[in-house]
Write a structure and sequence with these properties.
single chain, mainly alpha
């Protein structure tokens, strides 16, 4: 859903490892059989080998189909591996569980939003992103919704003013250049190209945003907004 930087899939998979301790407190009888696949899938994530992570997580769901953590990892891995249909299905499966941490549910919604975006199910993607933000109104979730509203290829789904407001709120919580990148796209959607250029230049000081950010900067300098490619 988020192109290059900020990248929704990348943000989500990077956050999953930090949530393991919260998840495992809820696993109960599944914990004994979770240590090995969790370690394997975590290593695959760290190496950005999302296809391997998906294979491991898929086997995990087969051996423990009632383990919400396994479905969570599979949804995140498929999102990172661009396996959109399986990712959407896995995220839907995990969201059917009731007793899970809000951080985990939020991640599931964002993974499903990412997959739905690439399946061109834009209304569903927006609904998931909004629900994730309501559960956890942190900088990442506000940023992800702002990016969608600023760059969605479907004009009916875009809302530049709301995107600017969300990105500014996110930036107050976290000065991440990825959020500056989103704010630039949001300003471009409203037609405020001078502000878009200003914020894109700030974002491009970070090497992670520089390559794709340079392309967007040229668009804004030519008074053209950016459209994410689903």
């Amino acid at each position: 859903m988020l192109a290059a930087v900020p990248a929704m899939a990348q943000q989500i998979v990077n956050k999953n490892a930090g949530w393991v301790s919260e998840w495992t407190t809820r696993l109960g009888p599944f914990e004994a059989g979770s240590a090995v696949p969790r370690m394997e899938v975590s290593k695959a994530f760290q190496r950005e080998n999302y296809k391997k992570a998906a294979r491991v997580a898929r086997e995990w769901t087969i051996s423990q189909p009632d383990n919400f953590e396994a479905w969570g990892w599979l949804a995140a891995a498929c999102s990172g591996a661009k396996q959109w249909q399986e990712g959407e299905q896995s995220a839907t499966r995990l969201l059917a569980f009731s007793d899970v941490p809000s951080s985990y549910r939020s991640a599931g919604l964002n993974n499903r939003a990412n997959c739905r975006f690439h399946l061109k199910k834009f209304a569903g993607a927006e609904a998931d992103s909004r629900q994730a933000m309501q559960l956890r109104p942190d900088a990442d979730n506000q940023n992800q919704l702002a990016w969608f509203l600023a760059t969605c290829p479907d004009s009916k789904m875009r809302n530049g003013r709301e995107a600017v407001a969300l990105a500014n709120r996110a930036l107050k919580l976290n000065s991440d250049p990825a959020i500056m990148d989103t704010l630039a796209a949001a300003y471009a959607e409203t037609g405020d190209f001078p502000s878009a250029v200003e914020w894109q230049k700030k974002a491009n000081k970070d090497p992670k945003t520089n390559k794709e950010g340079a392309k967007r900067l040229k668009l804004y300098q030519g008074n053209r907004p950016y459209r994410d490619d689903a």
